[in-house]
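Figure-free illustration: sequence to structure, shown twice.
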Amino acid sequence: TPSQFQKTAMNGAPRLDTGLFFLNDRFAPSDPAAGFDERADESMKIRVRDLEGGTEKATASANPRNKAGERMFSRRPVSIANGWVAAPPATTSLDTHAFELRKHPTSFRDWYTLPPAGVEAMNNPQMPYYNEVRAIVAEAIPNVDRVLVFDHNVRNAGRLASGTPDRGSVQGYAGTVHGDYTHASGLVRANQLLTAAGVSDPAERAALLARRFLVVNVWRPIAEVQSMPLAVCDGSTVQPSDLVPFDIFQPLADGSERRGQIYQGKHSSAQRWYYYPTMQPEDVLLLKTFDSAQDGRPRWALHTAFKDPTSPPDARPRESIEARCLVLLKEPQPRGSAKL
């Protein structure tokens, strides 16, 4: 049953005029053919925070400066549609908008005691929530062959700042417009994940990835969202010129780093943005963060947390979990699509 707070949001203004943090326009996209460019200027790279206590290098949330002293991200005015009014459930889909909202209640409650995320968690029997995620994805997407849930993040800025013993496994909010994978990194990550899942034969991996595959982010609040909601962009309104590849470096337990790549988003007046105020734990937002098909369907959903100016002064810090999945489909790769 919706709370009074949610009823107010559902019946409220159809649009919210606020601001989101985008990459500054002066940063031009890298050459797509270059893939992971070792020669990239350090200002174009992001080092994610070492949750084990290491030094925080440059992060998107810290809005680092480039070598010229200029901030990488700036707040741009955006009119965000209230999805309950402008894009109610069942009117958006992964294939046409790169996101969709679904109702899927959960009985899981142990969010802060989940074992650490990572590829080794894919078949861990102590990860019952992953079973729910697989079911959500299989229900939402036609022609699913296999769903590999390989990662999750629990976010709660209040708990992170409180000194709670488990804060090392909790993260804050990603406050700049971004996409989780690029054309290059989505292909590489899919191959890595299949290897980690036990598909050791290169020919078998190639056969699986010769079909269409997706990477999907399953985002769920674990309590009513009263602050820092998620905004998502209609993927059909995103142009290649809006996407700038950034390298990221994830510190690993052995002291090495895993290199990846994400898109940072540039502002465009053609983009259409949505959010669903006061989402409840049964509200699940699916975000397509990679699609191997290159046939005109949107391939990525840019998204960001943002400060909602209508949140009450005593609003609770947002609590949410996102789980990332490699989704292998039974359908063939559309002609002209990406191949490893």
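We now fold a second protein in the same way, so the two outputs can be compared directly.
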Amino acid sequence: MTSEENDFIRRKQISLRGLPEIDSVKEVINGFNRHLHYTCAKDRNVATNKDFYFALANTIMDKLVGKWIRTQQSYHKQNVKRVYYLSLEFMMGRTLSNTMINLMLEGACDEALYQLGLDIEDLESEEPDAGLGNGGLGRLAACFLDSLATLGYPAYGYGIRYEYGLFNQAISNCNQIEKPDGWLTYGNPWEKARPEYTIPVKFYGRTQTIGGKVEWVDYKTVVAMPYDSPIPGYRNNTVNTMRLWSAKSPNDFDLSYFNHGNYIDAVLERNIAENISRVLYPNDNFFEGKELRLKQEYFMVAATLVDILRRFKVNKTTVYTTNEELYSDFPEKVAIQLNDTHPSLAVPELMRIFVDEEGLSWIMRGIYVTLRLRTQTTRFYLKPWRDGRCRCWSTFYLDTWRLCT
């Protein structure tokens, strides 16, 4: 018998993650078998390691959802101040092992799978890395979300649900070949679609004054579909939310084009809209790539700000006569953190929403928003001048100012 075979047998015989309670092991086994049969619709004779991974992931998700719901109920009941972290990247890593550790389930899961004749390391290797980040920037965002949940801060992460992530690398004839990273091919058991919170995002068009109010007209609409993933804190009862936006077309399919044999144009509008959330960091060496990157940044920012304002209004129980009264405590309830300059369009977009959509006056005192760009604080507010005129006073990074103007 080789040393590798000895190591494999030893790993099968010894639970390396402690001696769990018998009841928790039984619960894991029962949940695992239930999800294997009723969620995956398979039995042990035909199931693969991928099916076993999904059964285990859904079993752990059952333990997670209760804490997730109770956390959000607590935030709503206490009407706490929330921090919103906006980032184009979230390098979260593999969720299975991290969630087991945070929920103190690693020992029970290891023992349960041992009793079922399975190796937990084989199942962990079945999970693909989430294609949501590239390097340090994405890892920083992921660490922030983990830390905020562990410390019990009411926090939400916002980003884009990339269909293909960055790329998979292959070498052919001493040259690098980039292939799509299809991390969502088999689905993601850790996310929950929220179609009831879809948000229309406007692109292109022009503005015109109608009845004394500036209106955005002749625009094209892309629908932002949110997908929520739980972010558990380390061995506490806090489970925060990471909400990722997926771009959808309001008109998925044109039957008239299809019936006339124009099959490409029948789905052209859908393909153009979904390109926004197709790939992380599309090549911007040409104009179309630069335009797509800008659309990605605005898409994420616009959908996120509308969602933030929706949640802010939901917690209001008093009937206000004016929007100035409604938003008077906005800075005490909302903090927005920008990860690098990619979400910097949040600054002018929030100003546009306040003035054009919500009808707030430039002369209004006390309304300001604090945003953080990495380590530097950016604060802008509406400052009235002595002669009655109003200007927006702001300080932030020079490159952000150039991008926003």
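Summary for the second example: Residues 10-17, 365-405 have pLDDT under 50 and may be disordered.
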